[in-house]
Specification:
CATH architecture of the largest domain: 2-Layer Sandwich
Strand content: 25-35%
Largest sheet: 5 strands, parallel
């Protein structure tokens, strides 16, 4: 088999690494990939942009490619899965219609309301003046979200009205998020603990993957601006068997059935970001792809074949498929560039002084090769990921990897996993 992964981030490195372990896979191609995928056994990078649908389709035909897994949200929202499927390429990833769950927060909030999926109260505005008027009568904190895709940075928690006013100015007047900020969702603030619930979906069939917990804030103790994710661990102890079933009954099943009613049946990874408070659950957001950095620790724990799982979903045979997990816990720590998630430097040489093992792996995100050197090329640069007999040991192993990496201005949270260590 030949597999093609679309994307160039940490999620795509983990997907390529996992697919390459399958004995039935001859080669894994990554378009365009990064310095990490360039150095993996059985993996080759392609100089094809994730948005070049025609070039991707041509390559799939020439090889031919047996399976495409689309990693990032933008190509999905733009219709890459639709385009490839129309051209006869077996593709794992939702249609553009189904990907609206992530493409538009106003669409997803209306969807939640229509299908009785628990979520925070909200209002939607496409006007600076109307949004400003609304917040004058609200209690704080509030959450303001850019409607469109904003690389995980479009959610702002506003503790008081001055912060909210500045945020609305940033979005509408200063165009902080560009076209993604043409509309905003303003919703009530939910207290509790966040967790990620990711599943493989094929129409009405759902296979939940291992639970995980992400860390969105840039700094320790959940302080600072929201990011695309500064680290994650798996499993998430907060999701017990009872809560797991509640999530399936109240969130996942109503969502996939609602999408079918909307004439947009789902195929792919479906990610529910949840806020959990005692036994209550609320959906914060849906993503139409595997999470990053959740992908890295989750796939470290997956013992069975990812390729077989994706093919079973494409063939609508998930009910006959079983996913096997290692008992170990996993922890991933994101190493970011100075200034992330705002302005950050690139082009810094990365020094690696570590030897990876089957228990410890460095996944690349914002990296590129420059001769024999590896340079930073993005905000989130690496994810040091490790297994352990429990979360405490997995965390210790992950930070051992972090200690052996160095580049100018690197920063990382030092408390990844602490919430799950009982």
């Amino acid at each position: 088999m030949k597999v093609l992964i679309i994307g160039n981030g940490g999620r795509e490195h983990a997907l390529a690494w996992k697919c390459a372990q399958d004995q039935n896979v001859k080669t894994v191609y990554v378009a365009p990939g990064n310095a990490g995928t360039a150095n993996e056994l059985k993996v080759q990078n392609l100089e094809i942009d994730a948005g070049d649908f025609e070039a991707i389709t041509k390559f799939c035909s020439e090889q031919p490619i047996d399976l495409v897994i689309v990693g990032p949200e933008q190509p999905l929202v733009d219709g890459l899965s639709d385009y490839l499927n129309h051209n006869g390429v077996p593709t794992f990833g939702p249609s553009a219609r189904a990907a609206r769950l992530e493409a538009s927060k106003s669409f997803s909030k209306d969807f939640f309301k229509k299908y009785d999926i628990p979520s925070a109260d909200y209002e939607v505005f496409d006007s600076h003046s109307m949004a400003m008027h609304y917040i004058q009568s609200q209690t704080f904190p509030l959450v303001i979200k850019a409607d469109g895709l904003a690389a995980g940075k479009g959610v702002i928690i506003c503790p008081e009205i001055k912060h909210a006013e500045a945020t609305i100015d940033d979005i509408f007047l200063k165009k902080r998020f560009g076209d993604a900020g043409k509309k905003v969702v303003i919703e009530s603030f939910l207290e509790g603990e966040e967790a990620s619930f990711i599943a493989v979906v094929s129409n009405t069939q759902i296979i939940p993957l291992a639970t995980s917990q992400d860390h969105k804030a840039a700094y320790d103790n959940d302080l600072g601006p929201n990011t695309g994710g500064m680290g994650a661990y798996s499993p998430a102890p907060i999701i017990n068997d009872q809560l797991h079933q509640q999530i399936m009954d109240q969130v996942m099943l109503p969502t996939v059935n609602g999408l079918i009613k909307e004439n947009s049946p789902y195929l792919g990874f479906l990610y529910a970001g949840l806020m959990i408070n005692e036994n209550d659950i609320n959906v914060l957001e849906f993503n139409c792809r595997f999470g990053d950095p959740e992908t890295q620790p989750i796939l470290m724990r997956m013992q069975s074949s990812l390729v077989e799982l994706c093919n079973a979903a494409i063939k609508n045979n998930l009910s006959d498929h079983e996913v096997i997990w290692h008992n170990e816990h996993a922890c991933g720590v994101v190493i970011a560039a100075d200034g992330y998630p705002s302005n950050y430097k690139t082009g810094q040489k990365i020094n690696f002084n570590t030897n990876e093992t089957s228990q410890m792996k460095i996944f690349h995100a914002g990296t590129k090769k420059d001769g024999n050197d590896i340079l930073t090329s993005g905000g989130r640069v690496l994810c040091a990921t490790a297994l352990g007999d429990d979360l405490k040991s997995a965390k210790q192993n992950a930070y051992k990897l972090v200690d052996d990496i160095n580049f100018e201005g690197m920063h990382f949270r030092k408390d990844i996993g602490n919430k799950g260590i009982l």
